[in-house]
Design goal:
single chain, mainly alpha, about 70% helix
Length: about 170
């Protein structure tokens, strides 16, 4: 029995893989115990291929799942929604994103903004720590290094499943 891979199954399956990677990141993909930001590495290609509204909806959904999954009071839903919308705007730009270096730069910026929002939320609660900024810079670096390869492959994957790109 062959199960056809459609967009909704791929979205759900890949979202579950992101949650699995967030909860149990591979040790060989970490720097000093800091893993890449899997949410950014997943959301960027989805938003670039599907557009701003789908990117914002996916960012909100992923952010709410991550917020429910984590035990802290730090939220990622708003910033992931904004990043998904912003990255989705590149679909309608005059020059769509084709280069892996552009995807790497966008992932680097997105990871820095997301982790900076975590650090600022800790600061506003009076729990400022140097470790939060250490994690921000480490995760941003690792995400920026992995993004050109992983995001390029995911862009190709999502384009194959998207009705906007005929086969």
């Amino acid at each position: 029995m062959v199960i056809a891979l459609n967009r909704s199954r791929a979205l759900l399956g890949s979202g579950l893989i992101v949650l699995l990677l967030v909860s149990n990141p591979p040790a060989w993909l970490q720097i000093n115990g800091i893993p890449p930001n899997w949410a950014v590495l997943w959301l960027l290609p989805w938003a670039v291929v599907q557009g701003p509204l789908a990117g914002a909806a996916a960012g909100l959904g992923l952010g709410l799942l991550l917020d429910a999954f984590q035990s802290s009071n730090i939220s990622s839903a708003l910033i992931l929604t904004v990043l998904g919308f912003w990255w989705g705007l590149f679909l309608t730009s005059k020059r769509p994103i084709e280069r892996s270096t552009t995807l790497g730069l966008l992932a680097l910026i997105g990871c820095f903004l997301l982790n900076s929002s975590y650090a600022l939320q800790l600061h506003w609660r009076g729990e400022w720590s140097r470790a939060a900024w250490h994690t921000t810079f480490g995760q941003t670096l690792l995400t920026g290094l992995l993004a050109p390869m992983l995001c390029s492959l995911l862009v190709l994957f999502w384009r194959r499943l998207s009705p906007r790109y005929p086969q």
